[in-house]
Amino acid sequence: MSIAIFWRYFWRMTLFTIFGAVVLNEATKWWVNLHHDDPAQALMAGREFTLIFLVLLLFYGIGIWAGHLITKPMKIHGQHIRIEVVQKDGQPVTVWRKALSCWWGFNWRNSLLFVVLVMLLAGLRINPMVTGFVYLPMIFVIGIFSMWWWIFHPIGRVHLVLHKEG
Q1: How deeply is 110 buried, as exposed, middle or buried, from its count of CB atoms within 10 A (0-12, 13-18, 19+)?
Q2: Residue 81 backbone dihedrals phi, psi, to 5 degrees
Q3: 47 within 8 A of 128, measured Cβ to Cβ
Q4: Does the first or last residue of the chain, that is N or C, have fewer Cβ atoms within 10 Å of its Cβ?
Q5: HEC sequence for 47-111
Q6: pLDDT per position as a tens digit, 13-70
Q7: pTM higher than 0.90, yes or no?
Q8: For 75-118, what is each residue's pLDDT tens digit?
Q9: SS3 of 124, please?
Q10: Please, what sign has the CA dihedral across residues 104, 101, 81, 154?
Q11: Torsion sign (Cα): 35, 38, 40, 42
Q12: Spatial contact of 73 and 81, defined as CB atoms under 8 Å apart
């Protein structure tokens, strides 16, 4: 279950990141060529465009949860599963509270695990190329575990509830 929900989140964020990186690269080149910037100004322009992109990525990550793209019903092993976001007391949640709670509920766990594992990897003496190849599977496994952790061991007032139908 957590794999399916994570996959819905992961592929959308990955495509947005790839698309954004391409647009960011081209926008930075255009800006530097338009203003004939020297290397220091070009580096600063790259940093400013990167900051703008990261803010857009943050809003996109929150916005994914605002819609029903991730929480729409799914079929797993022939079972229909309905996903609902509710407060502990069973009251409905507003769209933006749902989005922020879901984003935060998943991402703080994901970030915590990522930072800890990167620190452990940094302590090992490994070829940098090998380390680069380790990151993508590591991000995927951490994401699946973080989603599982969030769904089945919630903390806070807003929870993701799974309902088996039929």
Answers
A1: buried
A2: -115, 125
A3: no
A4: C
A5: HHHHHHHHHHHHHHHHHHHHCCCCCCCEEECCEEEEEEEEECCCCECCHHHHHHHHHHHHHHHHH
A6: 889 988 888 888 888 888 888 888 788 888 888 888 889 988 998 999 999 988 888 8
A7: no
A8: 888 889 998 888 888 787 899 999 999 899 899 999 999 999 88
A9: coil
A10: positive
A11: positive
A12: yes
Whether the per-residue pLDDT at 131 is higher than 80: the answer is: no
At 133, list the tokens: 């190849």
Closest Cα to residue 59, out of 110, 96, 15, 113? 96
Angle (CA) 85 136 132, round 5°: 150
Supply 98's token pair: 């749902």
The DSSP 8-state label assigned to residue 165 in this structure reads E
Secondary structure (H, E, C), 8-58: HHHHHHHHHHHHHHHHHHHHHHHHHHHHCCCHHHHHHHHHHHHHHHHHHHH
